[in-house]
Amino acid sequence: MMECDAQAVASKVVDVLRHRKVPIGISNRHVHLSERDFEQLFPGQSLTVDKPLLQPGHFAATQTVTLKGPKGVLNNVRILGPLRPNTQVEVSATQARELGIKAPVRMSGELEGSPGIQIISNFAEVTLEQGVIVANRHIHMNSFDALLFGVDDCQRIDVLVGEPPRTVLFKNVVIRVDPQLVLEMHLDTDEANAAGLTGMKDTGQIMLGSKG
Ligand SMILES: [Zn+2]
């Protein structure tokens, strides 16, 4: 009898965890810099923390840059730390249009064939050959959550986001499993605006068993 009770409690706990909502982080335009590009843009400086992000070790830096495309300029673009092997610029589709570039929707790090841009600081400028993308919507989670939700790394699923009348079913949400990261869905500002998100305690509901 005791054993049965324990099993019932365990499956209830699993059920609650499987149906819990996923916190949403809205990504505004930002830049990840390589060590080389950072040193060129900010000679003699180190990248300093302005605000820690939810993901452990990740932060918004105090340093900002200007992005200059063929048709327009974006000022005060935040650098996100830590530094990375390759420089990557993430903008929304609206901002790409303002800059006058055709940025593809990609997962982070998939920069092959993406357009370049000029990155300008108060000290110098760097011309990037490639690296501007619109980030593909995705959810970070650890292996335990992946097991609970029944998903694998790189799988695409559906997530219901927002409140009526602006509720949106986002398809093709890519699962990224990483033991270092915590459960969080990343959307860009175009996606967040479409779903009427406020940037305060927004959440999404994973549609269990969906195939994106
Ligand atoms: Zn992310």
UniProtKB/TrEMBL annotation:
Catalysed reactions listed for this entry: propanoyl-CoA + phosphate = propanoyl phosphate + CoA
Role played: Involved in 1,2-propanediol (1,2-PD) degradation by catalyzing the conversion of propanoyl-CoA to propanoyl-phosphate.
Pathway membership, UniProt: Polyol metabolism; 1,2-propanediol degradation
Keywords of this entry: Acyltransferase, Bacterial microcompartment, Metal-binding, Transferase, Zinc
Gene Ontology cellular component list: bacterial microcompartment
Localization of this protein: Bacterial microcompartment
Membership in a protein family: Belongs to the PduL family.
EC code: 2.3.1.222
Main location: other
Enzyme class (EC, first level): transferase
Required co-factors: Zn(2+)
InterPro entries tied to this protein: PTAC (IPR008300)
GO molecular function terms listed in the Swiss-Prot or TrEMBL record: acyltransferase activity, transferring groups other than amino-acyl groups; metal ion binding
PANTHER family: PHOSPHATE PROPANOYLTRANSFERASE
Highest taxon of the lineage: Bacteria
Any Pfam family hit: PTAC
Record protein name field: Phosphate propanoyltransferase
GO BP annotation list: 1,2-propanediol catabolic process
